[in-house]
Amino acid sequence: MHATELLRDVPLFKSLSDDYVNQLETRVVVKRIEEGESLLAAGSVPKTCWVVLTGQVKLYRVNRAGKEQVFAYLKPGEVFGLSALTDPSAPVTMGAVARASSEIAEIDAGLLRDALKREPAFALAVLAEQNRRLRQMTELVDQLSLKDAHNRLARWLDQWISQNQPNAGDAEQMVVLPYTQSEIAAQIGTVREVVSRGFSRMEKDGILRASGKRVTLMSRKRLRQMADE
Predict the structure, then answer these.
(1) Domain stops at, among 105, 129, 145
(2) Is 51 helix (H, G, I), strand (E, B) or coil?
């Protein structure tokens, strides 16, 4: 598949003119990366932007004690490294690593920066994407500051169901989560043992039944009530 076709499938780039997409075709490098391979280290200054084509990329940060906070698991069509467009000399605050064998496209940041100046629709699309991510970060700060870990777990599960099974109602349903308890813990700012206790508490309260990654949700209403406590 040509780079132009790849980029046309990326929501952020749909507003680019044909002229810029054609220019990008010669400035896109498609790479395959293996699980665990690092793409971007926290503190580095990126010179390119990346688009996930296949697989999944984790955005994360680790403190000196080794505790990990995951900010996002990027899916195909999602872009990272946008700070290279708006603040090209600033180091990034999080790292990026392949969660699975993936294919990514590297795009020259200079050309995209030029597109910001010349193509208002693209500039607005980038601004909207940055605002969306700011809202996500603000919500994460709010959750970490004001909710306990079990409430955060309930909210995370409810949101995951909404995003991945949007037609799910309040009836009993079984879902297979794509993450281990350790990976869930890293997303909600806690440790695996707390996530395990959270699932046990929800089982005791009749909200769900859990067996490994398989979760049978018995009361979506009570799950949401726990999330809002």
Answers:
(1) 145
(2) strand
